[in-house]
Amino acid sequence: MGRKRSGVRAASKTSIEISFQYEGEQCRERIPLEPSPANLKRAEQHKAAIELAIYNGTFDYAATFPHSKRTAKVGYKTGQIPLSTYLESWLERKEKALKASTIDGYRKIVNGVLIPKLGPTPLLSITRKSVRDALSGMDASNKRLANVQSCLRSALSDAVDDELIETNPLAGWTYSVKEKPKTVDDIDPFSPDEQRELLAAATGQYRNFLQFALWTGLRTSELVALEWGDVDWLRGEVRISRGLTMAAKEAELPKTSSGIRSVKLLPLALAALQDQKAHTYIEGKAIFHDPRYGKPFEGDQAIRKSFWMPTIRKAKVRYRNPYQTRHTYASMMLSAGEHPMWVAKQMGHKDWTMIARVYGRWIPTENDTSGRLAVEKFGSPVQSAQGSKTA
């Protein structure tokens, strides 16, 4: 008779079962080996190695038995966890802390880029080179690449906190490509004639919505979240403190503190609100409703299908996305000579550097008197004469 092997037995003609204690529970796992005397001895040695790793605190259940049903329960103890598995649990945790729109963006990056390209790679094996190799084949702008890496960098930072890896390989580093000069500008405002055509093509609440958007510069997500209680009729302002996207179940705070602001209501914006009163003012909540259903818009994306595309076609205006109403507002204000800092505050930017960078071409340069005051104060004839002698 063969000797008795504790915790090791033949489970079938093609497998051996080993049993051991782990975290107070009896565990049984099968090894795909024919139960020959030699293989049974190997299984005993494997069991002994597992028990030693458990004793030393280095046992990784999932790495040892990656196909075990118990893996999902006990999880991983080291950085051998595949990136895909970690990202899935990471997203679940982040849902409680981040805005729904941010989580939606992360989920698209995780499922659309990171898992397909790097999913099976263990956390410990993620390096700058592996990330560069994975992203180098993408036909994407540097902005897109930066967004993908920002998501991965955040996840790896949390993996460091979880003590699965020692350092974040993406800390202080970003992969980018040399981009070709842009031939198409994404800032494409509507001309005054196009605005008139659009407003003529829109009716009822849609027209009010469009006119208000053109004359406040609000984001679409801010427009659909706006409520009558946000309007200060005496001061002629509207308070912006939240936005509603399709990914969110309810309105959320802006990403930055500068997004919370009071926007001055210019005459045409006020006129649009006055006309809108007849539709939703009595209810006292959301200002703009979707006329198709007689209730507030459920998110910013609903605008595009409900009236934006039909209105563009009816007006016979070249297509641009709804966000161009915001660009139109900025270009109108700057072209008229309004101060860039005021425009920045209206639009929710913390300073006017972005206004100057993005909308600089609309800041007037005709009749530019820059430097005139300095010349008048310091450029006296005496100084000019002295300057000539010195030269």
Question: How would you characterize the overall build of this protein?
Answer:
InterPro entries: CB, DNA_brk_join_enz, Integrase-like_cat_sf, Integrase_catalytic, Integrase_recombinase_N, Integrase_SAM-like_N, Min27-like_integrase_DNA_bind, Phage_Integrase. Keywords: DNA integration, DNA recombination, DNA-binding. This protein has 391 residues and is mostly helical. It folds into three domains: 8-74, no CATH class; 83-161, DNA polymerase, domain 1 (Orthogonal Bundle), CATH 1.10.150; 192-362, Intergrase catalytic core (hpI Integrase, Chain A, Orthogonal Bundle). Helix content is 48%, strand content 9%. It contains 17 helices and eight strands. The strands form three sheets. Strands 1-2-3 form a three-stranded antiparallel beta sheet, with helices on one face. It starts with 7 loop residues before the first strand and ends with a helix.
Quick recap:
With 391 residues, the chain is mainly alpha-helical. The protein is built from 17 helices and eight strands. The chain is 48% helix and 9% strand.
